[in-house]
Automatic annotation (TrEMBL):
Keywords: ATP-binding, Coiled coil, Kinase, Nucleotide-binding, Phosphoprotein, Transferase, Two-component regulatory system. Transmembrane segments: none annotated. Residues 256-308, 385-437, 523-575 form the PAC domain. Residues 181-254, 309-381 form the PAS domain. Residues 561-611 form a coiled coil. Residues 620-844 form the Histidine kinase domain. NCBIfam families: sensory_box. The modification 4-aspartylphosphate is found at D917. This is histidine kinase. Its EC number is 2.7.13.3. It comes from Teichococcus globiformis. Residues 867-983 form the Response regulatory domain. InterPro entries: CheY-like_superfamily (IPR011006), GAF (IPR003018), GAF-like_dom_sf (IPR029016), HATPase_C_sf (IPR036890), HATPase_dom (IPR003594), His_kinase_dom (IPR005467), HisK_dim/P_dom (IPR003661), HisK_dim/P_sf (IPR036097). It catalyses: ATP + protein L-histidine = ADP + protein N-phospho-L-histidine.
Amino acid sequence: MDVAHQGPDWTEADRLAALNLYQVLDTPREQDFDDLVRMASGLLDAPIAAVSLIDAGRQWFKAEVGLGVREMPLDNAICAELLLSEGELVIPDLLEDRRFACNPLVNAGPGLRFYAGEVLRTAEGLPLGTLCVLDTRPRPQGLTDVQRFALRTLARQVMSQLELRRTVAERDKALAAQRGDATRHRQIVDSPTDFAIVATDLQGRVTRWNSGAENILGWTEDEMLGQTTERFFTPEDRATDRIGVEMRIALESGRANDERWHLHKDNTRFWASGVMTPLRNEAGEPTGFVKVLRDRTEQHAAGAALDALAERHRLVSQATNDAVWDWDQRTNSVSWNEALEAAYGWKSGQVDPTGDWWIAQIHPEDRARIHDAIHAVIDGIGEHWTGEYRFRRSDGRYAEVLDRGYVIRDEKGRPVRMIGAMLDLTRTRMVESALQASEALAQENIQRVQLALAAGAIIGTWNWELPTDRFTVDEASAYTFGLDPALGRVGLGLEQVVATVHPDDKPGLAAAINEVIARGGSFAHRYRVRRADGRFYWIEANGRVNHAPDGKPLNFLGVVLDVEERRAMEAERDRVTAELRALTDTLEQQVMERTAELLRAEEQLRQAQKMEAVGQLTGGIAHDFNNLLTGITGALELLGTRIAQGRFKELDGYVAAADGAAKRAAALTHRLLAFSRQQTLDPRPTDVNRLIAGMEELIRRTIGPSVTLEVVGATGLWPTLVDPNQLENALLNLAINARDAMPRGGRLTVETANTWLDARVARERDMVPGQYVIVSVTDTGTGMPPDVIARAFDPFFTTKPLGQGTGLGLSMIYGFTRQSGGQVRIYSEVGDGTTMRLYLPRHVGEADATEDMPTLARSPRAETGQTVLVVDDEPTIRMLVTEVLENLGYAAVEAGDGASGLGILRSGARIDLLVTDVGLPNGMNGRQMADAARAFRPDLKVLFITGYAENAVVGNGQLEPGMHVMTKPFALEALASRIRELISGPPVQTAAKGAR
């Protein structure tokens, strides 16, 4: 159970957090606490005393006398109910307090009757638990003033001990933190091995030298302590007193930044970025300096390469036939290279340089997908984006493109720019190259070049001045073609370049070059060339032919991409894909075959289980029905014999015996329907206390004299909406099970209570949150082990000997409560008894008053002319119902099937009420006949009588106004009363046509 409270100053989470600070839960016994509870037990003359702490879900005892346990669940905790009390709380008799009268510790073993407790409260006012004493005898007089004083004093001593534990725990924590500070400080300073951290005094002498300084500069800490930092400055900086300048700037501005050359121990130089900050004492006076250095030699060298990379990016933007874009996220402006016009026809005057224009050119079917995907990267934390979509050309046609981009973010992670390239998918997909750089200053330019060269790894560039045959190539291109780099810079002949091309590829290359020279614009072609090692390699040439205004070609600019590795990867990918496809086909076939085998085995197992269940059912039901039929037939046989002999005095006994056996057979049928959860229930607002009181004597006779019955009805119990007859049957079944679990006698307690289940508890019990009435049946019998509890509600499961039960009792109760919107829970331990708890939904309103069933002789008489149509395929039923109706003055008309009954209804004869079975032969059931009759007799009243689970037809909220149901078998006087009630009731208010 949860500890409920309405305190304005604290929550349960606050209270549990405070309890955790004391570090006392689950600790061993301690002499100080044990002495205090023994003193409380002696001073207050109580056999039981405890220091009780209320944890989440349990009550834990730091010290106890007379209990013999260290903890118990909160469901049974008396102290948990008292945490909101101020000061001590005394309960002279727990059995007279309705909060605790149903507590197992009170009404069962150990039978607690008296309680006195003092709340253990922190200085902040948070309750942790209680110091309490208990007695198995009530104490009407409570506590004396001396005892109250002793309880309060001892409670303060308990809190003093707890506060001492809290102080010691906090002290130990603080000492551990202090001891760790120095170690952590040393670890923190030494952990960054790529940062040199040097501490000096005001004269620049080294006082601290971390492992990063040793790693970067080369000197150990022992070698540098007491030395000045001039040791790792260059001679030029020492000559200009650069160290002193940095110290003065750091003292004036708080820090001094620099980027310059420094010296390693071996006198080699490295480029470093550094910062110097002053160290000050508590008075704010400077006591020294800290200088932090980082080796930036590679980044410094990378800066020199950025200009070359930028120039290569410019050439690529001009030469490639891919549309390269640069999207400024702060202004939503997009710049494109010339390939946007060459590849897709968009002239600069037609292009609105915004991100919105670009997205608008995407095919409508692809637009939302690409917009969401690209913004998921921009607005998220990713960097790379790739997408395939259809891009609109200037003539309205769409091109299939592969687009990818890279997000550049500032130091706070916000998107600043996004750079990318849009490729026509007729070209080979790019192989993404990666340029690694970690320096923030160089990062943006490196990424721009990387993504601008998105077509692949560029290995060279060329410039062909047309119409001459002279090529100018860079060093990389010369190497690619196996040519002399020196000749490449001054110009090569076309024949020298073509000579390196594979013979099989020369015709195709020549045709492609001639075609692009004739038309101008972009160029892309893949072929093989021979390099210096004599082997042929696959390359891809991408370029652009520029024409003069008169249409003559001016030059042919281009780049060369190495695609050797890409082609090998594509071949490997195709091979692996084929193998995976074959493997997948094999696995799918094996899975299908295995699945089919499992399904066949499962079906065989299910059929075997069905046959076993049917065997158990038929065995148990046959046993019960044979007993009942023996009683019925025997009584009728003796009845006939005595009538033939003229001995009429003994007839009443035989009639009563046959009637009783028939009613028990009907009850057995109802149990079967309840087990299947398909019985036709008649839920009514019911006062459960009154129902239990009415059957108390029946339960007492059923359980016998060796079992003591105790009924505890809750005051103010809510009504519940339930079938009272089924609830009586369920309680009687539970009482019989409890009796069988106490072969040597014991105590049976039937009690009721109101409860409100919140969402968490309702979810644990598989119920809907809300208000419920609880009916508990508790015995002191043998109890049930967990495996029996797990199967208790299974159909046909029983622990009784063969022939003494069908295993339907608890299944019936479970089906009835679930069908009523409630739940059943079992609480049991072997040797400690069992509690069966029924949760039934609360009914808001008044319970129905108890009415005595009129006898058939006193049943109301019919008015003149009232006629009832009886339709049932069982002649005996028709005969009995018709005889009852005629005895009461009704005119009765009979029919044996639905078609005959519908014919009578069509005849125009007066019919005040249709009484029909639901299950009728010859194709038309009772519901279908009633619906058909309502078409021409809209005010026809109908009473369905059913002997089995027909609620799929007439129940589940599907009955129309004026339709009612009774379950066979029924008392004839009940039938007579129901018929009179329906005929005399208000007219039928039928729904408008089409409203069903």
